[in-house]
Amino acid sequence: MSAVAGATSTRVGAGHAQEKPRSTRTASVVLLFSASLWGLSWWPMQQLAARGLPAPALTLMAYGGVGLLGLPLLWHQRQRWRGQLRQSLLIAVLGGWASASFVVSMTQGEVVREMLLFYLAPAWSVLGARFLLKEELGLPRLLAVCIAMAGAYLVIRAGGAGDGLGTWSGITAADLMALSSSITFAGNNLVTRAASEIPVASKAVLLMLGCAVVSGLLMVVYAVPLPALSGTTALGVGAFALVWITGGSSTTAYGMSHLEAGRSAIILLAELLAAVASASLIKGRAPSTLEWLGGSLILAAAAIDIWEAGNSQGELA
Length: 317
What we know:
Layout: H1 5-8, H2 21-39, H3 42-50, H4 55-69, H5 71-76, H6 78-81, H7 85-108, H8 111-118, H9 121-131, H10 139-157, H11 173-194, H12 200-221, H13 231-257, H14 261-268, H15 270-283, H16 289-313
Helix pairs in contact: 2-13, 2-15, 3-7, 4-7, 4-12, 4-13, 7-8, 7-11, 7-12, 8-11, 8-15, 8-16, 9-10, 9-11, 10-16, 14-16
């Protein structure tokens, strides 16, 4: 779930426009690999769910395990973030819910639909920046929000075939989880931008720990038992934590720190393409006409937001 970070988070790539061509090419390849890896993340999630591991249990163990390993780093950097305790808590809560609900949506819903709905995050970020941070909302970004919402409507409507066009009967619990993930992910990005004193590593650890806590609460509320793991399932959880959470996050951070924000955001859109292509090939389900139309609108809205952000800062060539 890294792709929209390029369009909605802090412009970490700013200031790197003069990188050597070789370094830029390497970073581009790394970032493309990272985006593709995240686009395939639905597969291990669903494989582990098929083995009897509920989504909240997966996120509790995987994110919680990585978060616990990061506790010494969080403690070491405490002097730099304790002055922004409120923002730290918000990062844990918003980022934690975004991650946990994303995994739930991927395991319980249609991969393409839920990924497309998650990609509404740039639109939520634009609205949040306007109403919470009082940033100016220009015509292009307003247009992007309207296009994204129209796309979301078509994607949701795709699940209610046979009903009137004005009904919402196609929406599912997984859809709501994906939507809530996109909203809280956008909120987390806004807080991240404001929490300038908190080191990036500390923000990552806070998100991991927050996801573990949220997952534990979901298990309590919905009476989800913590299953006994077979050796194969335990290895799968460890691989997911190592390859996707640790490896995916690290490669994303590397690529974004060596590229302009505009270029990073464009490359990271490969996550959505990888998810759609892999789900179609592996599951044998091609997107419906409405999903194609809605997805195209959502992707166009993200592209408009990326272009506008880069154009306003002079980052896109």
